[in-house]
Amino acid sequence: MAPQVLSTSFLIIALFLTGRAACQLRPTPEKVTVRVFADQKEGTLAPIWNYFGYDEPNYTYALNGQKLLRELETLSPGPVYIRTHNLLTSGDGSASLKWGSTNVFTEDAAGNAIYDWTILDHIFDIFYRTRVKPLVEIGFMPKALSTHPDPYRHNFPEGSIYTGWAYPPKDYQKWSNLVFQFVDHLKARYGDAEVSTWLWEVWNEPDIEYWKGTPEEFFKLYDFSVDAILRALPQARIGGPDSTGPANPKAAEFLRMFLEHCAHQKNHVTGKIGSRLDFISFHPKGSPKWKGDHVQMGINRQLASIQEGFKIVSSFTEWRHTPIILGESDPEGCAACSARNNPQNSYRNGPLYAAYEAETLNHTLALARLEHANLLGAVTWAFEFEEQPYFEGFRELATNGLDKPVLNAFRMFGLLADERVQVTSSGALSTEDVARDGVRGRSEINAIATRREHEMEVLLWNYHDDDFPADVSPIDLIISGLPATARQGLLEHLRVDSDHSNSFALWNRMGSPQPPSAEQYEKLQSAGQLQLLDSPVWIPIEHGHAHLNFPMPRQAVSLVRIQWQ
């Protein structure tokens, strides 16, 4: 496998050099002026980035999985939520791409239920010890309950993944009993106070083949599941339907049907009108394309899905103020599809993924304001994959224990304060334009700024859909509205780019070793941490103003932090 990885790396280098030659014909970028008004509040910045998820729950207790969960928990002061598939799936607990299992439910020869929480406890014990909060997904269908149990375990990427686990239950009451026992067991093991802080939702993407039943059968499954959860934990916060991106008309119609069911239709359990819905979830995804020599991201499709979902929710008077969780909000739809076989996914190893997340964060928040949506969180469907080559190009936050540049973008987000202040940028693009057209002309250089009592944070990024090199852009950062009594500030400038906070770049310079030596691995671990662009320095603050100039490459993210007394 190593020769193939080396050839992939040489291809990346060749594309870089080709792009650099082309870029020499481009005009030098104009200076971009970013103005921060530290005394003009713009509301609260909710940590919507504190949500992550993955298909394979058994990776949770792998050593690298535990390491990554500990890192995620320390991203922000607030809680970090984790959503995983396959918590009720039958199997021996072994994991593979897009597969996991807990074997919590089987039956004896007489059809009596047998519950075994051994594997499940291993998963949730790690969640509890690492202090992350589960966003508990109720799924998938145990083999003993499935109406079409065989074939059951898939072998991705060979064949279809939609096997026996995706079918409705042969007995909805047995399903309800399983869900009740599942929730009741978790409450007994971790305590009522702890599980009351968790979030709960039913199934995944029931508008496509993740659910082999009809929409009405899913609504029945939802009603039975909600009833069982509430019997075990009356204070539970329950949501759904975690359907696919509403930019697709069929997905949009399914979301409307689900909201209509929860608001106005007969409940399959109670016989009354409506079903409990504490938050609404759907999955906006982008659509990158391979253009022959580089990746072109499709951020506009992701943003269009977000906006359409917000519009659908707000069209229901019953739901327009209900919290929304973007249950999977990602550049595309297959975390386990490697860049080796899917070159459009080659954005994942380098700083483009980090810049994309900053760009998406900004416009997602802007769309929430524009559509008056009550946005609670946005789940990044990325974690880590076991027993895979280094930097294989999966959508993941770390590879074999080495943090990727995108994780450092989330570290930057976590350093932002709660109080947002006003920013203008001469390099900004309107959210309406980006949601419609993407970023295909000039790059977008924009910022988010926050403030604490004696500290200012400015997150800046330089993003373009097309992943080819370009000349750096000079940034003129002007901060006004600082305390009149402040005379100087301690400046720290953190950076993710081709040379900083970038384990992938160092791995390429090492010759793309599979695997790295112990000495190389130690250096790669260090390169994967969030790094300073320069050493911290004291800068003058004059009459409440601070002024900085620095270059910013394309596909880069900066966090400028100034502290004063």
Care to describe what's here?
Strands 1, 16, 17, 18, 19, 20, 21, 22, 23 and 24 form a 10-stranded mixed sheet that branches. The protein has an 8-stranded parallel β-barrel with strand order 2-3-6-7-8-9-12-13, surrounded by 4 helices. Strands 4-5 form a two-stranded antiparallel ribbon. Helix content is 31%, strand content 23%. The chain is α/β, with parallel strands linked by helices. The termini are far apart. The protein is built from 13 helices and 24 strands. It has 2 domains: 27-43 and 415-563, Glycosyl hydrolase domain, family 39 (Immunoglobulin-like, Sandwich); 46-349 and 366-394, Glycosidases (TIM Barrel, Alpha-Beta Barrel), CATH 3.20.20.80.
Provide the number of structural domains. 2
Helix content: 25-40%
Q: Gap between N and C termini, in Å?
A: 55 Å
* Integer average pLDDT: 95
Largest sheet: 10 strands, mixed
Tell me the strand percentage band.
Answer: 15-25%
User: Total helix count?
Assistant: 13
Mass-distribution shape: globular
Please state the structural category.
alpha/beta
* CATH C-level name of the largest domain: Alpha Beta
Radius of gyration: 24 Å
CATH topology of the largest domain: TIM Barrel
Q: Using DSSP, what is the number of strands?
A: 24
| CATH architecture classification name of the largest domain | Alpha-Beta Barrel
